[in-house]
Amino acid sequence: MITVELHGLRVHAHHGVHAHEKENGQQFVFDVELDVGEHGASDRLEDAVDYSAVAEAVKAVSDARSYDLLEALATAVADDLLARFAPQRVRVRVAKPDARPAGLDATPSVSVSKP
Prior knowledge:
This protein is an alpha+beta fold. The protein has helices at residues 19-24, 51-64, 70-85; strands at residues 3-13, 26-35, 89-95, 109-114.
């Protein structure tokens, strides 16, 4: 089983429940894993899932609309990656590194796995 992984993909976007988040935007960090069977074992790009295309897809979903919740954003990205690349499984983690929950130093994140 080959897993295509993309970690630490930073995308500036306007997601969140607060007005200042939607107006000013902030960094979101995506970690993506796609289980693709044996795609790419042939050493031919046309047989593989191109991680550049995965990065572009994540950004496109994030840019398409504003989400209030990380859960909804992560789910939308996972659904899009399933549709575009047909992996056996996809896992998407999205984090808000600039958020300070309860004023404390922590990074909130959400993970979604499908199917």
